[in-house]
Amino acid sequence: MSITLTSLHYIYLIFILIIIAAMVRKKDITLICIVGIFLLGLIGTGSIYKSTMGVFNSFVYATKELMPTIFIISIITAMSNVLIAAGINEELISPFKPIIKNYWIAYWVIGIVMMILSWFFWPSPAVALIGALFLPIAKKAGLPAIGVAISMNLFGHGIALSSDYIIQAAPKLTADAAGIEVASVISASVPLTITMGLVTTAAAFYLLRKDIKNGKLTVDYNGEEEIAAEKAPVLIPSSKARKFLGVLTLGLFAVDIFIMYIAKLQGGDATALIGGTAVFILSLISVISYKKESLEKITSDLIKGLQFGFKIFGVVIPIAAFFYLGDSAFTEIFGKILPSGSHGIVNDLGVALANSVPLNSVVASGTLTAVGAITGLDGSGFSGISLVGSIANLFSTALGGGVETLTALGQIAGIWVGGGTIIPWAVIPVAAICGVDAFELAKRNIKPVVIGLVVTTIVAMFLI
Known about the structure:
mainly alpha; 79% helix; transmembrane; transmembrane helix; single chain
């Protein structure tokens, strides 16, 4: 099979290279994507006004594609804020207090709880939900604050965010860019996520344990002050009521998971079920907590949630708009101007690559990991994973398969670095709530994450 490459294909490829180069230099790529969209439209249509319209229409297209994701993040954040204000978050964590008897149990329990909550609430809201409560418990058990931060960061912003099995924001972005189903990315990511998670968290714990034994890390625990912090005033004074609502919250999400499994709900349907449940929980707890003021408070919390959602994904929209043009979005926005027989710019480049450049699983896996890590250097983690999806599509065409594994690998690398555990987008909030230096946290994460990426890449080579 052969395809005729046009100037549109070469412009798209050049801009991908420019974007990667900009990310390496830690520069923002929004303007580059806007210029790229405009030039693709100008070359394709020969019209300045049509290419100008195309920039706006591509933003609209990307926003429509991302809107379910933006809304679910916003609603989950709004619900999390109400849970914290009501004191229900404390009840959700309280059963773990008797279990945490030493620092190694603290490390793994905090991490696992953070991972589970992050799958439902996303890591940033989960940090607020559990950080303040687990920190004094962990310190009392002998785990330094930096250890708590490492555990929360690796399990939450690492494992949970890079896999994103419940909300499915990350696999949605990469799957769309790669032109495959969300379920395919999720399925392919399971062995890679397990490998990355186990290797990274184990390596981090080994290094942490070594420093604790050598006396390089000590615990600064002020019992009275931290116990007082645990007893801060909450909107629902009754412990029984908080426990009931906490169990109800967990129960409703457990029912969602059961329904997803029975009804085989994935992607947008799964997101809608979780989102609708979160709205219900938000409304119920707001009415109980705020009573007469609940009508205004529900609106206020939803607005705060939306502000958070658009703040996180605002940078993604122009970038995603450019990468969506690599597939069917180009024809929808600029019309049928690609050559006859074209299956989209990225697919065409993949066919050309297959006919001219020898590729193997080793080269492809190593490249996707490197590109994923590079895309994470901008600090968002999400802004570049559309790129890894496009490159995975291109490489898989040359290899004759493996798009799911390559897409999942690039997604994992991009989010672990930028979403993330190395770049301050995620490191700063965790560091702040644990009272540690953000640069120290990032420094301690680097070695375990690099080890994890190397091992995960090797595993991917055998899976392609």
